[in-house]
Specification:
2 domains; MetI-like fold; 0% strand; globular; mainly alpha
């Protein structure tokens, strides 16, 4: 009897359950009464929407969602534009120096965000960045640029340099070549970058906690955390978390086809 396929199926089932159980518990808790302290594993006797109503009307959900969308959109714009242009330059140089720059850029990802909070906070106080969108946009984009540069660099390396030479013969300058020849081919990899970095920016907590201290400037993550204090409202927090996850889940569903294609095409060969 072939045991290997069975073991693979069992391992896959364990992984699926490991990722599904937290979602199941969150969904179940979100439909229970706020005073219902029964096990989160048990289904509610009656499906209630009061947690969702409280999360939307009492917790400032719309404000937090709009703040998060604005910050994510502008940060992603910076990540995509700067990452694609930098990746184009590094891929076309393709020498020891450019390879070192790519590795050094990836090294930035190894630096924990919390270790830089004190100097960053002092800088933002001086330049007036506390409780402003642009401060978190710049910080979030800076931390997500390394992976974007890495992905774009590897993807653009697969595009023949002969296209650049042909464009140059036709009179295109490097910027024009990038915009007219390279950029239209970056659709799949841009979807990959959007998902990988957009989710992290959307779920940003440390920068949101320290640099957006005003109640009307909260992001989704700090909005959900507001339900946890001396008296934690777990059921309302569950509803708030599900509502906050809907936008990014929707984007992922819409882009998953191109996400898989881009991930495969930009992988290191």
């Amino acid at each position: 009897m072939p045991w290997k396929p069975i073991l693979w199926y069992l391992a896959s089932l364990v992984i699926v359950c490991f990722h599904t159980f937290p979602i199941y518990i969150t969904v179940v808790a979100s439909f229970k009464n706020i005073r219902d302290l029964s096990s989160k594993w048990t289904l509610p006797n009656q499906i209630l929407l009061e947690n969702y109503e409280a999360a939307i009307h009492d917790g400032g959900f719309y404000s937090a969602l709009s703040n998060t969308v604005i910050i994510t959109a502008f940060a992603m714009l910076i990540v995509i534009v700067v990452g694609a242009m930098t990746g184009y330059v590094l891929s076309r140089l393709n020498n020891r120096i450019s390879n070192f720059i790519v590795l050094a850029t990836l090294g930035v990802m190894m630096v924990p965000t919390i270790s830089l909070i004190v100097p960053l906070y002092r800088i933002m106080m001086v330049v007036g960045g506390i409780n402003t969108y642009w401060a978190v946009v710049i910080l979030a984009a800076t931390y997500q640029l390394p992976i974007a540069v890495f992905i774009y660099t590897n993807f653009i390396k697969t595009i023949p340099a002969a296209l650049d030479e042909a464009a140059e013969i036709d009179g295109c300058r490097p910027v024009s070549t990038f915009v007219r020849i390279i950029l239209p081919q970056l659709g799949p990899v841009t979807s990959t970058v959007t998902i990988l970095t957009g989710v992290k920016i959307f779920n940003e907590y440390v920068f949101a906690l320290y640099f957006l201290q005003s109640g009307d400037m909260r992001m989704i993550t700090t909005y959900v955390s507001s339900f946890f204090n001396e008296v934690s409202y777990i059921n309302q927090a569950s509803a708030a978390a599900l509502l906050g996850a809907l936008p990014i889940v929707t984007v992922y569903i819409l882009l998953q086809k191109w996400f898989v294609a881009g991930a495969m095409d930009s992988s290191v060969k």
